[in-house]
Amino acid sequence: MRIDLNADVGESFGRWRLGDDEALLAQISSANVACGFHAGDPLTLTTTCRIARERGVAIGAQVSYRDLAGFGRRFIDATHDELRADVVYQIGALQGISRAVAYVKPHGALYHATISNEAHAAAVVDAAARFGLPLLGLPGSLLLRLAVDRGLRAIREGFADRGYLPDGRLVPRDQPGALVTDADAVAARVVRLATTGEIEAVDGTVLRPRVDSVCLHGDTPGAAQLAARVRDALTTAGVEVASFA
C-alpha cells in the first residue's frame, strides 16, 4: 500500500509568515506551491521550491483566483478566457522558478468551483493542458472528468483535516465540523482512508472516495507536527508515503 501526502506551502508574503514550510516539507511527498495570486512572493516561492527539490518532494502549482486580500477563498466570477489566462500565468511563473513543476492543483474557492462549474473547470484544464500537466482534485469532480477527456492524468485527492458532507464534498469553512484538529483523529482518518478507502462524513455516512493523495493544510496551526503524526501512523500501518508524480 502507498499514498501521497500533499500540503499547501509557499503561502508567506513579504514580512507576513504563514506556516513552517521547511518543517512541513520534511514530512510530505508533494508540495502545492502558491503561485502569487492568493499568496506567495517570488523569494518565498524560490526558497520553497529549492527546499522541496533538496528533500525529493514533488512540486505542484497551486493556482487560484486573483484574490490576494481574500487568500483565494472568495469566488470570482471570471470568464473562461480570463481564468484560463490567469492560470497559465501562474503555472508559467512557477515554472520560471522551478522547471520541476509536476502537477496543478486549484486552491480555495477555485478548487470548490471546479467541482461543478463547467467554465471554471474547463479553464483550469485548458491551462494545465498547455503544459501537459496532471491535475489534482476532488474525486468525481468535473475538473477531473474534463482532465481525463483532454488526455491528462487525473489525481484523486482526499483530505485529512477537513470534514466531509454526505455527498463527498467538503464542509464549508464557516460551518461546524469543517476542520478536524485532533491529531489522533486526523491520523486515524488518514490510515483508514489509505488502507480501506473509507472516510466518515460529519453525519456518520461512510464514504468510499478512492484517493491517490491526501491533503494536510499548511496553514493549520501545528501543521508540521500533524504531518509527522500522520506519516508515523501510516508507516506503522504498513503504508508507504510516496508522491504520485
TrEMBL record:
Membrane-spanning intervals of the chain: none
GO biological process assignments: carbohydrate metabolic process
Coiled coil regions, renumbered to chain: none
Protein name as it appears in the record: LamB/YcsF family protein
SUPFAM superfamilies in the cross-refs: Glycoside hydrolase/deacetylase
Domain of life assignment: Bacteria
